[in-house]
Amino acid sequence: MSIRKPIVAAITAVTILTGCSGHAQEAPSTPSADSDSRQVVTAYLKAAVRHDCQVTRSLTASSTWAWCDKPRMTAYKGIGSVVKLSAQEAGVALECYPMTVTTRDGQGRGLKEGTRPWTLCFEHTEAGYKLYQQGMR
User: What pTM does this model have?
Assistant: First the structure.
């Protein structure tokens, strides 16, 4: 019996498992209603870069636009610490995260293509955190 067959079988199994686990990490998912705002902002940004409109729309309140059509977010980096604003300060209680985003096709929203500072602010609702307000910081 050759030792080569078990080695080839083991390598094949590892390759298949690695491929499957990598694919599972790419699957779109909407955070549960009990997720904290940090988990939601991270999921939102990943979905925006993937152009996953189902997730971005489900996590966006009617008070702002979802990162879905234009502009197109192509990258983000440097999610900062949460800044909490009270209802007295912002009209509703918000949890805001500063970051840097890279966009293209933003003419309809008045955004030039490129990289800029940006802030996403989330309101906590019964359905979980929803993007309520956003803009340049």
Answer: 0.77
